[in-house]
Specification:
Helix content: 40-55%
Strand order of the largest sheet: 2-1-8-7
Number of domains: 2
Number of strands: 16
Largest sheet: 4 strands, antiparallel
Mean pLDDT: 87
Strand content: 15-25%
Number of helices: 13
Structural class: alpha+beta
Low-confidence stretches: 6-21
Length: 367
């Protein structure tokens, strides 16, 4: 039988990519390229993979992850009081290498994949499991990143059967966490002026951040960041959760927070509303976007990403122009003024005050 040209071509491409990457993840019966084209249907899963690997590298700088079986070591009491209790060895555990996670089929292929005539691939049935033996297993991020990603995020064993085992690393992470927490407290209470504090609070979804007392805002923001970090620890596989590292990154990138600040301001003023039964955002009664069920918990962040898309520029500018006031322009720092001018198309070849006056004049926001 002679295969059609497009199938032969796909098989050749697949063989080349497999040779380049000895380890392979399969998503919905397609090989996961870590850097696919932006319009690829696998692009969201590749992004999840890259972020997951980066998260593991940050947590395990030695590139070694040790997982320990829950409930071990176990000691079997010796019937002879003169003899020591005997440790019980955990029985080997068979872990499937293909698993459905939230409606998506993930697979890890140890060797050559099974390739179908239609170009789809899967883990060979005889290789669709791995035996985990002993009390502690080790994953190497450098030599087996795909395997580590699958075991940590997709296998379902973390928490249920195994937990991370790293006594020395635990101490280091504890000290790092303490240092991070001090940085958060210093950033909130000492390093930010009032306008930036209010902007950051809005970007983090704190209600009425434009009018609350500064001390109350500091307390609420600190609580929000630490509560987010606690949620991350409870749900280590949820890459959308935001905590201490994300906050420390945010305060160094004002321009990324300003759109989220505008969004929260519009929510506070009840001009931007979310219709829960319809799962849709509306601004002044006009539909802005639909929010998928899996994005409901972080819908403000999802909306910010939607409005960042160039094809939604008109919707974004409508919201931005509607929310800009004289007070907003007057209280913005020089960086905020330049950002606003850039968003609204005002020429930037002016000094701060001239740029501020141009904004006031062009958009007629003065009383």
């Amino acid at each position: 039988m002679v295969l059609p040209f497009f199938i032969i071509k796909n098989l050749l491409i697949f063989a080349f990519e497999t040779k380049q990457r000895k380890i392979m993840l399969i998503v919905n019966q397609k090989q996961l390229n870590p850097n696919p084209p932006k319009d690829s249907e696998l692009a969201p899963y590749a992004k999840e993979y890259r972020e997951g690997i980066e998260n593991l590298k940050q947590k395990f700088p030695t590139n070694n992850i040790q997982l320990k079986r829950n409930g071990f070591p176990k000691l079997n009491k010796s019937p002879d009081p003169n003899m020591a209790d005997m440790p019980e060895m955990p029985s080997p555990m068979f872990i499937p290498l293909t698993r459905n996670v939230d409606g998506v089929s993930w697979g890890y292929c140890k060797g050559a994949p099974l390739i179908h005539a239609n170009g789809l691939v899967e883990v060979p049935p005889r290789e669709n499991s791995v035996i985990l033996s002993g009390e502690v297993i080790t994953l190497n991020l450098r030599s087996q990143p795909d395997y580590a990603f699958f075991i940590m995020y997709k296998s379902g064993i973390l928490g249920a059967e195994f937990h991370v085992y790293d006594p020395e690393g635990d101490k280091l992470r504890s000290l790092t966490e303490k240092n991070y927490n001090l940085k958060v407290q210093y950033a909130i209470r000492e390093s930010m002026d009032e306008p930036k504090l209010r902007m950051v609070c809005q970007a983090w979804g704190i209600v009425d951040a434009g009018t609350k007392d500064v001390l109350i805002l500091q307390e609420e923001l600190e609580g929000k960041v630490f509560a987010g970090e606690a949620q991350k620890k409870k749900n280590p596989t949820d890459l959308m959760l935001r905590g201490v590292p994300e906050f420390l990154a945010d305060i160094r990138n004002d321009d990324a927070m300003r759109p989220k600040s505008i969004i929260q301001l519009a929510i506070d003023e009840k001009r931007l509303t979310f219709n829960a039964p319809q799962s849709r955002f509306y601004f002044d009664g006009d539909e802005v976007c639909y929010v998928p069920p899996d994005k409901q918990a972080t819908r403000a962040d999802y909306l910010a990403n939607v409005l960042h898309d160039p094809k939604n520029e008109e919707k974004w500018l409508n919201i931005l122009r509607s929310m800009v006031t004289k007070e907003y322009i007057d209280t913005s720092d020089k960086f905020g003024i330049r950002w606003l001018a850039g968003q609204l198309g005002v020429p930037l070849n002016k000094k701060e005050e001239a740029l501020r006056e141009s904004l006031l004049a062009e958009f007629a926001t003065a009383d």
